[in-house]
Amino acid sequence: FIPLSLYVGLGCMMRLYELPNQLRHFRVQDAQCFCCSNDHRHPETGKELPCDRKLVFSALEKWFGDGSSTSKSEQWIQHFNLMVRAKLSSRIAGTVGRGLPPFSYVLSTLCVSPVPFIAF
Predict the structure, then answer these.
(1) For the chain, how far is it from start to end, CA to CA, in angstroms?
(2) Residue pair 53/30 in contact by the 8 Å Cβ criterion
(3) What are the residue ranges of helices labelled H in 31-87?
């Protein structure tokens, strides 16, 4: 039996461990969106949903494109992907570590996990 806090803490640490690798291989084209996963229909109401991917890609093209609407090379996508892989990846790695959870996360998870059993 694993205490819930330890289970949740280990799950968070595993995601932190995987984050640098995910950022190194980031491609916005591979991102999943709610609307496309549900055939552009709300799962409960059945109402049509606007495409999140189109909205996001339109904004990214405005921010990272060269301003010409005739450019079909989509270099702006590559520019954004490279920015995430280089700049954002290094900033996040500096914040959360290089694949290893900060010692304070590990310590707090281990110290809190036996708390439910203290009363027994």
Answers:
(1) 15
(2) no
(3) 34-37, 52-64, 75-83
Buried b (16+ CB within 10 A) or exposed e, 13-39: beebeebbeebeebeeeeeeeebeeee
- How does the average pLDDT of the chain come out, rounded? 80
The pLDDT tens digits of the residues spanning 73-87 come to 688 999 999 999 999
Torsion from C-alpha of 36, 74, 30, 40, nearest 10 degrees: 0
Per-residue confidence (pLDDT) for residue 69, from 0 to 100: 56
* Percentage above 90 pLDDT, the chain: 38
pTM of the predicted structure, to 2 decimals: 0.65
Which residues fall within 8 angstroms of residue 114, CB to CB, at 6 or more apart? 3
Tokens standing for residue 28: 């916005």
Nearest-angstrom CA–CA distance, 98 and 93? 5
H or E segment and range at residue 15: helix 4-24
Q: Which amino acid is at 85?
A: R
